[in-house]
Write a structure and sequence with these properties.
single chain, 13 helices, globular, binds 5-amino-5-deoxy-1-O-phosphono-D-mannitol, repeat, glutamine amidotransferase, EC 2.6.1.16, Glutamine--fructose-6-phosphate aminotransferase [isomerizing], glutamine-fructose-6-phosphate transaminase (isomerizing) activity
């Protein structure tokens, strides 16, 4: 089943152009997201939605965090994002007009399912699931469903499930934005970015050889710091989680603006710092954060897009294709997946079945 690939994780990383194309299939036509993708009642439910509560665990939570930025910025609708194991054990205040959105690859994660069930008795507009398994408990329990269509994911470390979640959530954010009257040009640009994604992903995966070379340096490290801003802060979190999960290197992600508030004290020549640096409205701020890292002697790995490659002082620079706000979190996730993969292979860990972890956490 793994075919030519040494591990399922590597196979699943390389399936992403197709998986994302499948997520988009039949959901965009004539430059528009098709409202029917969410089911027949969706139009009326979205009209009533004026805030969103996202609940998920692990990698799915990171997808939710990215979606939170999109939903507030594009749809102009307030969005909260919370870990399911926290949400389910507190007493959340539900404002009228709030849509509950659970995100889960497996659809069987105990905490996410419990949160969804708990939400039933509350005053939500509806409960929606973004999920990869059609017959799962979370899908059965939800009124609105958007399937990610990633296909089976065997590797414990989530890869194509994450990027297809991002794409499904981008479709949802655009659809909600349309229902809330987003300006037509911005909407059209968002749709166009999604349509171009499968090609951009395929192009980015060709950087595999360069990323493997970076991994050689990395494999002997004990710690790593991942930095990003905006939607790329949760992308940095996802990169850190991948590295921890399969290579057992201690990794942490910070919003780059937080560096001076503590983590900068950790930076010295033994601390690799990975910066997720697409050319968005925060790039100049990020560049000055990175100068602080360099000034402390930290070994800087900058993942930039071709439009910012110049004027960035780093030990290692990986140049990715330029892309817009919806495409960038997907594209910038890919080198982080590959970096974690190659580091784990070099360290000789069990990539597909990391110690102490299960693919689906069905008990708390
Ligand atoms: O099936 P789910 O998306 O609900 O699973 C949630 C997490 O357990 C999962 O994303 C986990 O964090 C991954 N193994 C990370 O790679």
């Amino acid at each position: 089943e793994r075919g030519e690939y040494r591990h399922y994780m590597l196979k699943e990383i390389h399936e992403q152009p197709q998986a994302v194309a499948d997520t988009l299939e039949g959901r965009i036509a004539g430059g528009h997201v098709l409202t029917q993708m969410l089911g027949v009642d969706a139009e009326a439910l979205l009209a009533r939605t004026d805030s969103v509560q996202i609940v998920a665990c692990g990698t799915s939570y990171h997808a939710g965090l990215v979606a939170g930025y999109w939903i507030e910025s594009f749809a102009g609708v307030p969005c909260k994002v919370e870990i399911a194991s926290e949400y389910r054990y507190r007493n959340p205040v539900v404002r009228a007009g709030t849509l509950f959105l659970g995100i889960s690859q497996s659809g069987e994660t105990a905490d996410t399912l419990a949160a969804l069930k708990m939400a039933k008795g509350r005053d939500y507009v509806a409960r929606m699931a973004v999920c990869n398994v059609p017959e799962s408990s979370i899908v059965r329990e939800s009124e609105l469903v958007l399937m990610t269509r990633a296909g089976p994911e065997i590797g414990v470390a989530s890869t194509k499930a994450f990027t297809t979640q991002l794409v499904a959530l981008a479709l949802f954010a655009l659809e909600l934005a349309r229902a809330k009257g987003l300006d037509a040009a911005r909407y059209a640009d968002g749709v166009r970015q999604l349509e171009q994604l499968p090609g951009l992903i395929a192009q980015t995966l060709k950087l595999d050889g360069q990323i493997r070379a970076l991994a050689e340096n990395f494999a002997a490290k004990q710690h790593a710091l991942f930095l990003g801003r905006g939607t790329h802060w949760p992308v940095a979190m996802e990169g850190a989680l991948k590295l921890k999960e399969i290579s057992y290197i201690h990794a942490e992600a910070y919003a780059a603006g937080e560096l001076k508030h503590g983590p900068l004290a950790l930076v010295d020549k033994d601390m690799p710092v990975i910066a997720v640096a697409p050319n968005d409205h925060l790039i100049d701020k990020l560049k000055s954060n990175l100068e602080e890292v360099r000034a402390r002697g930290g070994e800087l790995y900058a993942f930039v897009d071709e439009t910012v490659a110049h004027g960035l002082d780093a030990d290692h620079v990986l140049t990715l294709p330029a892309c817009g706000e919806f495409a960038a979190p997907v594209v910038f996730t890919l080198p982080l997946q590959l970096l974690a993969y190659h580091v784990a292979v070099l360290r000789g860990t069990d990539v597909d079945q990391p110690r102490n972890l299960a693919k689906s956490v069905t008990v708390e």
